[in-house]
Amino acid sequence: MTKSKIDAENIEKRHGSIQFFSRANSISFRNFFVFNHCMQDSEPPHVSAISGVIDLTSWNFEQHGPVALQGDWIFRWKEFIKNPKIDSEKNRIMPVPKAWTRIQEPNGKNYPGTGIATYFLKVILPENLSSNNLAILAETSETAYEVWIDDNKIGAQGVPGETADTSTPEWNVKILPFQINKKEFQIRIPLSNFYHARGGLTARLILGNEDQIIRLRERRMTMDVFLLGFLVAMALYHFTLYFLRKKDAALWYFGTICFVFCFREISTGQNLIQVIVPGISYNVHMRIVYLSFYLLTPITAAFLRALFPEELKKKSTMELFLSPLSFL
């Protein structure tokens, strides 16, 4: 067989593989994004906290749905306190959601990753509130904190403490229900971070009627379960094709990409891993989150090299394979 004929067959084989992945996966991803669009929450009017106060008097929970408690909160660095009016000159403004490591202290330096602080937000409710049964959806934040409504603790993520030995971080999503019989209340959040590079309230707190928050959580869980099932199916499908056509390594690598994405999906978003493995160690959870992210680069490089063996060098691909080992 002549060299030109061999090259032609290789090009045809590679083109066939590319067409196969393009057609098979574009249909699946198209269906996923159509489903995702149908499941997305409608965009509510923009409301933001200013100087530690969020005014919801013009907000209609029945029409607009839950509201994100985002904006500028009152922030007391290195203190667990109950009342921000005490020694109020120490009060600072901190945007939420945002890591405090991205904000500068009065001395011009960024806040360090580790430390403790207390967040405060005054909430003014609308007059036409249909129910006194409210709830907060606490999205994933890689720290430890408690949530207090006035003088009542309604929930926590882990156990905040003044030292690493007295604090326990948690990486989870929770619904925190509470009852309120007045139009104004204060949210107080004592928070500590000694286990993650980023400190602070890095995820949103979403306020709404309790049934709205439950439905929101269920919709998001449904979306995550659907995506997980899609990724598992794609992984098994490509692994099966590989065992039928073992000469096509691209099938194996693409199946592995989908498999790694499964771990990424269950450990982020709505944190299905906390449902599958309740009480999973924070350190194990964190390693799954980051390792599943960094593994995608070398596996994707190997997948592309299987499709284009002549164009991509083996040495550079091997370097990408070894790079995630530094995160173990």
UniProtKB/TrEMBL annotation:
Entry keyword set: Hydrolase, Membrane, Transmembrane, Transmembrane helix
Gene3D superfamilies found in the cross-reference section: Galactose-binding domain-like
Residue ranges of domain 7TM-DISM receptor extracellular in the record: 222-311
Protein name (record): Glycosyl hydrolase family 2, sugar binding domain protein
InterPro entries assigned to the protein according to its UniProt record, in alphabetical order: 7TMR_DISM_rcpt_extracell_dom1, Galactose-bd-like_sf
Residues annotated as transmembrane: 225-244, 250-267, 288-308
A UniProt-annotated Pfam family: 7TMR-DISM_7TM
Stretch forming the signal peptide: none
Listed GO MF terms: hydrolase activity
Coiled-coil ranges from the UniProt annotation: none
